[in-house]
Design brief:
Length: 329
């Protein structure tokens, strides 16, 4: 039996599940050698550990920061929509049969995560707009490549603390005369669990849904501990400019949070306690383009009432010269 085949059988029993408890290479070599048939050098074992850690089908993963290896978890159902759509890569909720409670639990987690992301950006001076209609269970799968879960709006606001919601009148007038948008729009795709198996789909869906906007952001709930995964995301970001952020929230953390409505309507002290549970890690910063694709945005408006609401909200803020949170009336 080849060394690779032996390691595939042995490593799952030796590796810890938690990246924080990662086992160092020297100790893993010692433990693996006890169970191996054949005499292999340390260098050969280290080489195989390194190569296998970049294989999404392998059990071994290398920690992104620090030293050591841990057991890569099995791919979980990925969020292919915002609230109503759950998928194995590009499937539908209908495709998942069996344990209904597991599906309900996964859907509740993503609703909580969406609420946390919304509240986080509201607290930090960005203005989220949510798309929901394109992700119902009967919606076409092509919507996953057309609509973002969230649009994040950054405005030119006033400089003084008392006028932090007021738009900068001088800059607003100048940009209007130059035909430049007085805001920056980034389309965001949300995902629960980062995975070496599915990150390319996550990334290119984010790129696709952001082509009409000025930038794209891929936001994961879970921590990105896998070195190969983090490197892969950074390389794609360097090539295409999509930002990648992890909120560092394990399923257990999400399960402990209050209901989504409570998160969105939390009092300041409650919001502070929720924000304290986050471990924000920016894998790659988003690159903003100077202009929107107005033709593509107008096409989106003709197909989606929510896109029309987005434009109406932006116009309202400009007319009032005040950045206001979106309210669906």
């Amino acid at each position: 039996m080849s060394l690779r085949k032996q390691l595939n059988d042995i490593l799952p029993t030796l590796l810890p599940n938690n990246p924080a408890e990662a086992i160092k290479g020297t100790e893993l070599i010692r433990l693996a050698r006890i169970n191996l048939t054949g005499n292999y050098s340390d260098a050969s074992l280290r080489y195989h550990f390194s190569i296998m850690s970049c294989d999404p089908t392998s059990a071994i993963a290398k920690v992104e920061k620090g030293q050591g290896y841990y057991r890569r978890s099995e791919p979980l159902p990925a969020l292919s929509g915002a609230q109503e759509l759950l998928a194995w890569t590009q499937g539908r909720l209908d495709d998942i049969s069996g344990d209904d409670s597991s599906v309900d639990s996964a859907m509740l987690r993503i609703r909580k995560f969406r609420a946390v992301v919304t509240r986080y950006y509201e607290v930090n001076g960005r203005f989220p707009f949510a798309f929901r209609d394109p992700f119902t269970n009967t919606s076409p799968l092509g919507n996953l490549w057309k609509y973002p879960e969230l649009v994040l709006v950054d405005w030119e606001t006033g400089g003084s603390p008392d006028e932090e919601m007021s738009l900068d009148g001088g800059m607003l007038s100048l940009k209007q005369r130059l035909g430049i948008a007085p805001f920056r729009l980034h389309s965001a795709r949300l995902r629960l669990s980062p995975s070496l198996m599915t990150y390319r789909e996550d990334f290119f869906q984010t790129l696709s849904v952001s082509m009409w906007a000025q930038g794209g952001e891929l936001i994961y709930a879970g921590p990105i501990a896998d070195e190969a995964l983090a490197d892969g995301l950074r390389k794609l970001s360097a090539a295409y400019g999509v930002g990648v952020t992890s909120f560092g929230m394990t399923p257990e953390v999400l399960d402990d949070l209050p209901r989504p409505a409570n998160i969105l309507n939390a009092h300041p002290k409650e919001t502070e306690a929720i924000m304290a549970k986050l471990d924000i890690h920016k894998i790659a910063a988003a690159q903003s383009r100077p202009h929107l694709d107005w033709v593509a945005l107008n096409s989106l408006r003709s197909e989606s009432e929510e896109a029309d609401k987005l434009v109406a909200w932006l116009n309202h803020c400009i007319d009032e010269r005040r950045a206001e949170p979106f309210k669906d009336e």
